[in-house]
Design a protein that fits this description.
The complex is a heterotetramer, with two copies of chain A and two copies of chain B. Chain A is an alpha/beta fold. Chain A contains twelve helices and seven strands. Chain A folds into two domains: 333 residues, Rossmann fold; 33 residues. By secondary structure, chain B is of the alpha/beta class. Helix content of chain B is 35%, strand content 21%. The longest helix of chain B has 15 residues. Chain B is globular and about 60 Å long. Classes of the chains: A alpha/beta, B alpha/beta. Chains in contact: A-B, A-C, A-D, B-C, B-D, C-D. The complex binds thiamine diphosphate (TPP) (2 copies) and magnesium ion (2 copies).
Chain lengths: 396, 329, 396, 329
């Protein structure tokens, strides 16, 4: 008695089609500079954050610009190294520099971040050495840094997992008494990064439940780059992610992810609230993935060049440069010096990658367990004996 | 500290209390672990004494519980997670297998996740579906985890403390149908009877066939040994205690002594613990075996409705039947 | 290098405490009769559903009352049978009769429902024989009915799982072309039931994602009975479940779960929308679990008698009876006849339970797989041989 | 229909197409299965030809994918689910183990869930973590599921169709590092070479030691057999094809022939398929065994970073070493 129905299979498409304009963030979106870098008037959306932007110095602006350029160059170098066979894979952040630099710069040293796998720009702001990012993609390690040193967790590849780790870490901060004490250098918060696709996962939503219930000092930062590999937004949700938060009892904000000033301001405000004990915020940075999903992907299969062109116009670096120039905060000499620095960074990254020592094979048995483990120890011993056997053979 | 008679449930409760007293970083988390003390009352009284920050009633979401426990452990805490029933651990499977088991290796030793996941497991309590599962093999197959099972009040008391002080993640299986059985527990930490967390124990000496069991079936095997003795058959019973790693030294030694082994557990036999133990023994004790290693376990069907569980669970008769078959070789 | 922090452990409680008044559903809640059964005026919240209530006949009202009383008696009998050792467990619906009868009666034959484990009242409305409900709790079966016969799925015990089954089933209806055709007898929708605690699960939230994206004909019916075993609402969410829906792009409605007319009207409207192709709705029925979680539970450990007393005053049967009497739709003779029917039902359920045949043990090997499976067949054969051995022994 | 040369990937693609043409109730579901054709292009071209209702790009949530597939199956559909990579099946573990595996039994036969879950599995492609796992043992231990693995284009083409027409849920493992290997596929349904879904196949005759493998290691074992032949050792190679149920008739027959068996898989050996096979063989072929059943597999560590995978994966040397050890008994 299987439940086969007698109903004829329906042949019109019942799957919904795109309705959203994926190039327009709508009136709720917080924005401070337009596509040319012109500083915008106050709007209902940006007013709450205007003071934060106004407090920034020209030096802050130049420094942000520098981060954007260096991060893009680092990313381009990762991409190139993959193409040359030095890395197995590279997920490019091209187009998302402002979202990541804005978010990364809003953090304090005592805050802690949980990235996905594309957050090279956040890593940069946390002080992770660029070459450390390469180990994972070169296949020598699953992460080349110690998370506690710079308060930056390893990349997490299983979509959604890190959101709960971030929530738990934030709950730990609450128990440590480093939330809401009023001590600026002590109060801390956590940032958790994921993408538009990531919002569908159970873990993502459970993190909203737990963070909401615990009133945890957590900022959930969703980079909506319009694509989850080949799937557009309308296959992941019906309303944009920033609206998700209110249903869990805390604020959600949409920010122009290509406007570094806006991202910085919104994130800083959210982090300040979190540290002060005001609980979680969800930020949706509306941006675009200009490149392929990763070096393994071929986006021509699923999206039009025209769409990419529209977004190329919204380039976050171009906008920041326009802003600095219009305001007279930077000149060509500055831009050139940043470009030179980028060239140096590229060389440094490339050299470091090529010089990365080949790990010794028996290392794979190390640090599986903290305490001794007979199975692993036996296998390691056998492996070394076996390898030694080969070497003896070869030596003969 | 003198010895004290207590139930297995109370043994865990007392062990948790001792661990919480010894280390303020130890937290308990789970559904209903607070005022209610858990559906089995294992955490009874602990929230009252240690507060809501250390005995945390979580939202009803197992992935969330384990995922946030991982974050708390990264922040320096030692969470002890209660899964309400064996059958409800699966929503957390991803966090356990992808993250909990791998984080130390993923971070090349930079991170440690000293988390204990307590799982009341097994059948025999007349429960509805999903409340009687034995899923230890999934986790024993997962590199990066340690998996143990207690079978009596003393082990309950000491093993839970050892598990909590382990810097590796430990899956801690509790035989729920033995929660209310009582025995003497020596509370003296110097007591000679305390074994390491991963040591097996010979709980009944015998010469003809070795029964290997853990958790709820240890008692069944002891009963089988008594019954067999009346028929003049001498059975040795080993409480494995640790499922990953296995105490293969003890296993090899005892099986080489008798030449005959039978593994007894509630889990389905196909790829259950018995298959690993049999595969190991036939490899390491090949020339000592008088008979193949036999397995007595749950049948290879989903755990049945409770009116069937008496036949489903490995009982005395099935164990003795296997003993006969082993001796017939 | 474990990440043990130097920060002292914080000793004030950081876990949030209850803020909500768990006895007041707030102004958004749809309600048609008050605690005494007096018909309420139109409010902003109830106006959209007023026509549905107004279209009900006195006979409808009496029939609803009858369902409430019979379902309560059925439940009481289940409870008693457990106490007498005839059942292993019984989860009582006491206090939730109106939520379940209102929802169950709003469904059409072609609709399909996915219950949790407490939905005896919905089962009743679907036409499941009361004795069929007992098999699971007696331990002879995992469900005593064929889901396709009355379009009522088995009980689901793993919290949240059924929400996704319901969503998939609704997606199947879309593909079958039985949504939005305008044919009243053909268009169909799905109802999915869970509790307040259930809203925390990943699966619950993923069902909102999938249903939203597919615009599936699904009504998600959350009985917020204020408790998930021992955990109150504020440990599961920060804002009530009906607000969750908007963040996923479809409406959420809170209804007085002890007002059968309101529940019926709200559910009917949501189902009509779903069948018409308007997509999902989430309904939160605000109610109260008057009894223990199950017969294994002891609620005195975690909640006050005073709280229960407040809710006993809001009894859904008392209200409906008040309404019928005030309107003159029913008299004592009617109430007595319903009580007599309830007595008969109780006897019938009890007798059926006690007469339930003991299943033959080898049945446990049947219907594990559809196609033959050598392992199960071998085990069954061995089992039967082994049993036969005993019987032969005993016979001797 | 003539024979045709194609890759293993194309074999699955063509098999899916044939199944979709034969039965309008067959649906494909998964992440990126539509326009992109999946990250491995297994579903390439199918959405174009069968439409978005039958080749469904789902939201990024594996529990949701399997959970909704169950609902669709209850409504009469036959969903074929693609899990993008082995390591991403765990979020769906609960739906698979609690519901998919048990629904037929739970409903006492009233419900059938003819769902296929396709899992590209195993390592050797230089991927980052979570993309190279071999988790078949978890599902083989789960009663109610069927678990199979194809190893060449012809099996890929036929087995996927057989899996789809099975009324039971089938976990369908695809050896991702063999996707691009080509071979002749006989498209004639009457072709004598088509075995049942649960039959093992002797893919190389030999007399001294039997190698038992499935999925990606079948080819490695064939290479080992060639290498051994050059040293005058005759190895028999069996492609198990089905992991649950195992074709124990074939296994017993061939091992009784050689008296020596080695199981080779990528999964960790502790409680891997090899442990069940070894436990079975030592029981059923006890008196035929000249040597213990040996296991060559992945080490008991999480799958390592890709620069280590050549040593991690069982290769020719390790297989031949085990052959030597077996022959030395
Ligand atoms: C649980 C899980 N399922 C599937 C994948 C495979 N996968 C990797 S990235 C990706 C898309 C992610 O999209 P989004 O969240 O929008 O992030 P983006 O890549 O755009 O930054 C998928 C499906 C995964 N890594 N984890
Ligand atoms: C996945 C899962 N985890 C835990 C449980 C154990 N459990 C059964 S009922 C329950 C509470 C459910 O509360 P709620 O959703 O509010 O429904 P109610 O029982 O109040 O109707 C729990 C934790 C379960 N059945 N499934
Ligand atoms: Mg994206
Ligand atoms: Mg509830």
């Amino acid at each position: 008695m299987t439940e086969i129905r007698d109903v004829a299979v329906h042949h019109e498409t019942v799957v919904p089609q795109a309705q959203q304009d994926i190039t327009d963030g709508g009136p709720d979106m917080v924005q401070f500079v337009d596509g040319e870098g012109t500083r915008l008037e106050r709007t209902a959306a940006n007013t709450p954050y205007a003071e934060i932007v106004e407090a920034l110095t020209p030096e802050d602006g130049r420094s942000m610009y520098r981060d954007l350029v260096l991060v893009r160059r680092l990313d381009a170098e990762g991409h190139a190294l993959q193409r040359q066979g030095e890395l197995g894979l590279w997920p490019s952040l091209l187009g998302q520099e402002a979202a990541q630099v804005g978010a990364g710069r809003a953090m304090r040293a005592q805050d802690f971040a949980f990235p996905g796998y594309r957050e090279h720009g956040v890593a940069w702001c946390r002080g992770i050495e660029p070459e450390q990012l390469l180990a994972l993609f070169r296949g020598v390690d699953n992460g080349g840094w110690s998370p506690s040193e710079l308060n930056y967790h390893l990349y997490t590849i299983v979509i959604g997992n890190q959101m709960l780790h971030a929530t738990g870490y934030a709950m730990g901060m609450q128990r440590d008494g480093v939330v809401g004490t009023g001590d600026e250098d002590r109060d801390a918060a956590v940032m958790a990064f994921t993408g538009d696709g990531g919002t569908a996962q159970g873990d993502f939503n459970e993190s909203l439940v737990f963070a909401g219930v615990a009133n945890a000092p957590l900022v959930i930062f969703v980079q909506n780059n319009q694509w989850a590999i080949s799937e557009p937004n309308y296959k992941q949700f019906r309303v944009p992610p920033y609206q998700r938060a209110q249903g869990f009892g805390f604020p959600g904000i949409r920010v122009d992810g290509n406007d570094v000033l806006a991202v910085y301001a919104v994130t800083k405000a959210a982090l300040d609230n979190a540290r002060a004990g005001q609980g979680p915020t969800l930020i949706e940075a509306f941006t675009y993935r200009l490149g392929a999903h990763t070096t393994s992907d071929d986006p021509t299969k699923y999206r039009s060049a025209a769409e990419v062109d529209i977004w190329r116009e919204k380039d976050p670096i171009k906008r920041m440069r326009g802003f600095l120039s219009q305001k007279g905060y930077a000149d060509d000499a500055f831009y050139e010096s940043v470009d030179r620095e980028a060239d140096e960074l590229a060389v440094r990254v490339r050299t470091a990658c090529q010089n990365m020592p080949e790990p010794s094979q028996e290392r794979m048995f190390d640090e599986i367990y903290v305490d001794p483990h007979p199975v692993v120890e036996r296998e390691k011993a056998q492996f070394m004996e076996y390898q030694a056997g080969f070497e003896t053979q070869e030596a003969r | 500290m003198a010895a004290q008679k207590m139930t297995l449930a109370k043994g865990i409760n007392a062990g948790l209390r001792a661990a919480m007293e010894a280390d303020p970083k130890v937290l308990l988390m789970g559904e209903d672990v607070g005022k209610l003390g858990g559906v089995f009352r294992i955490t009874e009284g602990l929230q009252k004494d240690f507060g809501e920050d250390r005995v945390v009633d979580t939202p009803l979401a197992e992935s969330g519980i384990v995922g946030t426990a991982i974050g708390l452990a990264m922040r320096g805490y030692r969470p002890v997670v209660e899964i309400q029933f064996d059958g409800f651990i699966y929503p957390a499977f991803d966090q356990i297998v992808s993250q909990l088991a791998k984080m130390h290796a993923r971070s090349r030793g930079a991170l440690r996740l000293p988390i204990v996941i307590r799982v009341p497991f097994g059948g025999g309590i007349g429960a509805v579906e999903h409340h009687s599962e034995s899923n230890e093999a999934y986790f024993a197959h997962t590199a990066g985890l340690r998996v143990v099972a207690c079978s009596d009040p003393a082990d309950a008391y000491w093993m839970i403390q050892q598990a909590i002080s382990s810097d590796d993640p430990v899956m801690f299986y509790e035989p729920k149908r033995r929660y209310h059985e009582r025995a003497e527990v020596d509370l003296d930490p110097q007591a000679g009877s305390i074994l390491g967390l991963h040591d097996a124990r010979v709980v009944h000496e015998g010469t003809q066939v070795t029964l290997l069991a853990y958790g709820p079936t240890v008692k069944t095997c002891l009963q089988a040994a008594d019954a067999a003795a009346q028929e003049g058959i001498s059975l040795q019973v080993v409480d494995l205690r640790s499922l990953s790693p296995l105490d293969t030294e003890t296993i090899d030694r005892v099986v080489q002594g008798t030449g005959r082994a039978i593994v007894v557990h509630e889990a389905s036999t196909f790829l259950g613990m018995g298959s690993e133990i049999a595969a190991h023994i036939q490899q390491e004790c090949f020339h000592h075996l008088e008979a193949p290693v036999l397995r007595v376990g749950g049948y290879n069907i989903p755990y049945p409705p409770s009116r069937f569980e008496e036949e489903f669970l490995p009982g005395l008769d099935r164990i003795l039947d296997a003993v006969d078959r082993s001796l017939a070789y």
